[in-house]
Amino acid sequence: MEVLVFLIPVSLGLGGLGLAAFLWALRHRQYDDPKGDAERILSTEWDDRPKPK
Amino acid sequence: MTDVGADYDARFSACPACDAAPLAERVAGRVRADAGTVILSLPTAHCAACITDVERALTAHPGVRSARVNLSLRRVTVDAPGLSADGLIAVLDRIGFPAHELDPAALSATTADRQGRDILMRIGVSGFAMMNIMILSVAVWSGADAATRDLFHWISGAIALPTVAFAGQPFFASAWRALRAGRLGMDVPISLALILASAISVFETIHQGHHAYFDAAVMLCFFLLVGRYLDYRTRAVARSAAEELTALEVPRAIALVDGVETPVLVADLAPGDLILIRPGARVAADGVVGTGSSDIDRSLLTGESVPVAVGPGQALSAGEVNLTGPLTLRVTAAGRDSSLARLTALVAAAESARGRYTSVADRASRAYAPVVHLLALASLAGWLVATGDARLALNVAAAVLIITCPCALGLAVPAVVTAASGRLFRRGLLIKDGTALERLADCDTVVFDKTGTLTMGTPQVVTLDGLDADARAVALALAAASGHPLSRALAAALDGTDPAAIGDLREVPGYGVEGTWQGRPVRLGRADWAGASAEAADAPGAATWLALDGAVLRVDFTDSLRPGARACVAGLKARGLRVMLLSGDNPAAVADIAARLGIAEWRAQATPQDKAAAVADLAGQGARVLMVGDGLNDTAALAGAHASISPASALDAARVASDMVLMGSDLAPVAEAVGVARSAARRIRENFALSILYNIVAVPFAVAGLATPLIAALAMSLSSISVTLNALRVR
Fold it and tell me: Are residues B486 and B584 in the same domain?
């Protein structure tokens, strides 16, 4: 059972990582235009390098 | 509009009168927002190529710093300091995208986004906590004992307490508001259950108890927040579309300052100002015509389908549309003093007649809160008396509160409304208020307005039989020279004939078009101007007159039906509704439309007061009225009816007063909406039955002291999921 000492923090840490990613995406307005983002991936613009800010 | 940011429970249009009044003020008090940013509506954008084309074209335009298309909202936001929207619209027009300027001040997108993100964040946090606690809880349920169980409880508590404190805030805030107002809303028992479950669990954990309800508390938060989010999303989608309609009318007028044309905001107009109203423009303020003569389309205000001729000295009201000649107008009342604002009083009166509709959810929660509190209190007292064990009694009472907590109840209505309004949105009908569906399902009588609702408000030639070949050629040449709706309709009807060669062609605004044909004068226009006899001119109906070689020929017009009008009326009748027609237009025109659509009950020349009174009378006789109308003259009736629908072409005030807005020009979705609403009302009732059923099964366990956290979790998730699945069955 001693393994729990590692496993619980690991599972919490992984879940927390997911939560952090979700909050980051939310704060950076990744959910503002789901339809547009779904279409944008089909565009060949900026395939070679990222769009400059 | 209600400030949703201040209150999660705020209904979108619980009170159209309250909506209409600030709206009139907002339009009047609008300020130029955020100079540099232009927001354009892109109704035709739909794919990846559209996004790239639009963004590339706009960024290539000199002066544009950046452009970003939002495909979900069909808008493009352009950062272009110092550029006007007109130039950008021209750029988009060249690459084939019609665009309209949106008034950024009318779009409160940023605040709406923030609130949606706020709820999503709380859902994310409680979802994370729920999953992690559940892993530990499953271990406890499957038999973890002694030190291991206590450790798991401690870890669960460490996750659950901050989560409940953060994710539960919307419920705590709303419960606190309810308590301060002396009410018992749904949120009071929810908050009580959250707090009590957490407190009892902490106590049990400290004393090495067997049961901790941390998982239940967090799961409660999660499911209830999902319900809140669905509810919020439905309203946000409706609001952003409704705002877009409002924002389309950028309130500008052309003022004549010392004879120079200067664009000004309608908000800045004051009585005494001189404004220019070009043909095709909407009259921006109430006033008196100074110079010029023209024809005025009053259909949105009075329901008259035939344009009225006006000249110097005559009064115009805001909202009318100038058709043929330029007019200068001396402003007598602007902004909140204008006729639009005066109408608010009428709307307020009608609104108080409708009273406050209590939705099924409100009635359920009103009955629910006392029952739950009594039940929990009774079990507490009962166990205390029976065993004398305060800890046990408190545990049982907490279990009762948790089990009865309205997870399913909180999802029952939003899930159905989301499913139904999504379905109707795809068919072009926008629902502004969740209770609108319930009210629509109750309706047994439909009252239609004529002009602009059942008809397009555009005339159609009845017959060309009275005209010979020469007359047709002359009529076409004359009609083509004018922008008057009757002329345009005549020209459209004569499409295919060769126009005659007419010299000295000129339009006399307010009268008609004249010219010379083969050396003889010809005229097309008003009866007295063309030279028709007085008694012929008095004959009812919309008509234009052609003076040719001494003869005066009459061309009759009728209003063209809106597409889907026949299907709509037939569909409503098939669903067992009584259909009526109330119009401000003349009896001949109304009788004609009623006959064409098969509507037996109709009334003509109804004033706005008549319409509101008729709707109130019907309600007095026990009928539930659905009002469909578009004009200012319908606004009071729309607000007074049990449910109301207006087309997107309606005036702002009419749209605000209605529960639903028809986005397309097709009327057919109205009949479908009644069907969907009835199906949705059935699902809502089924959902309530389902969640009550779960309670009937689970509550005896809780009261008997047999409830375990496992039973609570099972009852909660099963009822929530079955209610959501049932909602998807809306047809």
Answer: no
Residue B141 burial (C-beta neighbours within 10 Å; 0-12, 13-18, 19+): middle
Of residues B415, B412, B420, B458, the one with CA closest to residue B436: B420
Q: How many CB atoms neighbour CB B473 within 10 A?
A: 19
The verdict on ipTM greater than 0.90 is no
Instruction: Name B203's Cβ contacts closer than 8 Å, sequence gap at least 6.
Output: B209, B391
Residue B196 scores a pLDDT above 70 = yes
CB B542 within 8 A of CB B589: yes
Number of domains in chain B: 3
Which residue of chain A comes nearest to B68, CA vs CA? A36
**Residue of B349, B364, B396 lying closest to B377 (CA atoms):** B396
What are the C-alpha distances in Å from A16 to residues A20, B131, B198?
6, 11, 22
In the sheet where B503-508 sits, what is the strand order? B455-461, B551-561, B542-548, B520-525, B512-517, B503-508
Cβ-based contacts of A2 with chain B (< 8 Å): none
Contact between A18 and B128 using a beta-carbon 8 Å cutoff: yes
Residue-number span of the structural domain to which B620 is assigned: 428-455+562-677
Q: How confident is the model at residue B355 (pLDDT cuts 50, 70, 90)?
A: very low
Q: Are residues B593 and B673 in the same domain?
A: yes
Cβ atoms of B128 and A17 within 8 Å: the answer is no
Within 8 A of B48 by CB-CB distance, chain A residues are: 39-43
Whether A11 has a pLDDT exceeding 80, the answer reads: yes
This prediction has a pTM of: 0.71
Q: Is there a contact between B52 and A42 if contact means CB atoms under 8 Å apart?
A: no
The dihedrals phi and psi of B450, each to the nearest 5 degrees, come to -90, -70
Query: Which residue, among B368, B468, B459, has the nearest Cα to B691 in the 3D structure?
Result: B368
Segment among A13-27, B83-97, B422-436 with least mean pLDDT:
B422-436
pLDDT one-digit tens code per residue, B500-546: 888 888 888 778 888 888 888 888 888 778 877 766 666 666 778 88
Strands in B321-322's sheet, in edge-to-edge order, are: B308-310, B294-297, B321-322
Report the CATH number that the domain containing residue B67 is assigned in CATH. 3.30.70.100
Mutate to test the interface with A, among B72, B110, B148, B166 (most CBs of A within 10 A): B72
Contacts (Cβ under 8 Å, ≥6 apart) of B335: B24, B25, B27, B28, B29, B266, B267, B269, B285, B341
Q: Does B48 contact A23 at a Cβ distance shorter than 8 Å?
A: no
* Same structural domain, B602 and B658: yes
B722 pLDDT more than 70: yes
Tokens of residue B298, six digits = 């009053």
Indicate if B449 belongs to the active site.
Answer: yes
